[in-house]
Amino acid sequence: FIISVILLSCSGSINKKSSELYLLGADKYNQKDFFNGEFLFEKSFNVDRDNTAALIMAGKCEFFGKKFSEALDTFEKVIKIEPKNISAVIWYSRIALLQNNNIDKAKKYAENILKIDDENISAYIILAQICEMKSEIQKSVDYYERAMLHENEYRVISKKLYNYYMKMNLLDRAKKYKRE
């Protein structure tokens, strides 16, 4: 969410009215007022059709408001505009899995994510879950192992950062990377 706000404020292509509506929608989203948040994010997108961040947030509001089929439609709309938008693809795939709705499309999208980002843990987990649903246990195990491989790489990096920050006596920064 914070990254979206930063991107909105830095982007010259998003107009002021769209940005204002987005920020109002973000406020409603943070208050868990998903109905009004969705309305404001959609309005933001309608003012500026390049503002796909608003459309993604509208889809999240639909999801958390338990409007799953609408959320699927919204994320698919983003994917049509930006086929490589990893956030939209992950959200679409997760909802499709939860709803047992169009598993083949969710699989295709997750595989496409890995073509863009072969370290995307979420894509590996989605593929593992799809294989589980299809009783393809060995494939599922393979995907879970790939996800763990990347998770372990992040743990190693996290441990190194923790140790460096401790050596530099930057305790607040070190806390972020401490693993129990």
Summarize the structure in words.
This protein is mainly alpha-helical and 180 residues long. The protein is 79% helix and 0% strand. It has helices at residues 2-10, 16-30, 34-47, 52-64, 68-81, 86-98, 103-116, 121-133, 137-167, 171-177. The longest helix has 31 residues, at 137-167.
- Largest beta-sheet details: none
Structural class: mainly alpha
The total count of strands amounts to: 0
Compute the separation of the termini in Å. 27 Å
**How helix-rich are the residues, as a percent range?**
over 70%
Overall 3D shape: flat
Output the helix-strand order.
Answer: HHHHHHHHHH
Identify the quaternary structure here. Answer: single chain
Mean pLDDT: 85
The total of helices stands at 10
Strand content: under 5%
| Estimated radius of gyration | 19 Å
Poorly predicted parts = 1-13
